[in-house]
Amino acid sequence: MYTGRMDSRQLLVDTMSELMWERGYADTSPREVRKRSGVGQGSMYHHFPTKRDLALAALERNVADLLPASSELDGPGGPMARIEAYLMRPRDALKGCKVGRMTQDPQVREDPVLLAPVARAFAQVHDRWVAVLREAIAAGELREGLDARQLAHTLMAVLQGGYVLAIAQQDPGLFDDARAGALALLRAAAPSVPGNENNGRN
């Protein structure tokens, strides 16, 4: 079915990516990767001599999936509209974050090479959050004096924590509550309109 060398390599990476998302690195075996992908042992070890080599390629793939989504924060429209769209876009809460999931795997946490793509991805997403929050402050959509770097970490923590709550209770509504609550807090941080102190209370 997959005759090209690049085809089998990509299939292995895609399969490892999905299995790590479902089970984590420690609980994913090379045999399971071969079984699900249909790629033979010889081809697998040609491309990836070790499980760690394959895992690193899969992590890079997961990071590549995460970063385009966060680029929505840099897109067209007003900054608060982009923030709301990014916070509330559809996500599979019970599967969790492909990248954040890896921080719960002890073998990834204890391996600086495997952890590096995860740390880099979150640093890049944080930079995008900081930029859009600063834009919202400059546009008068959020109050002056807010610390955009702190607020960016808070919003990232809400999303990652929302996944944990939803998975623990097997209830995606908890994830929805967490991000809706974050959005409500952001709206509460909008500057008050002079002469309209009751705005939003009625």
From TrEMBL:
Residues 6-66 form the HTH tetR-type domain. Residues 29-48 bind DNA. Keywords: DNA-binding, Transcription, Transcription regulation. InterPro entries: Homeodomain-like_sf, HTH_TetR, Tet_transcr_reg_TetR-rel_C_sf, TetR_C. It comes from the Bacteria. This is TetR family transcriptional regulator. It comes from Phytohabitans aurantiacus.
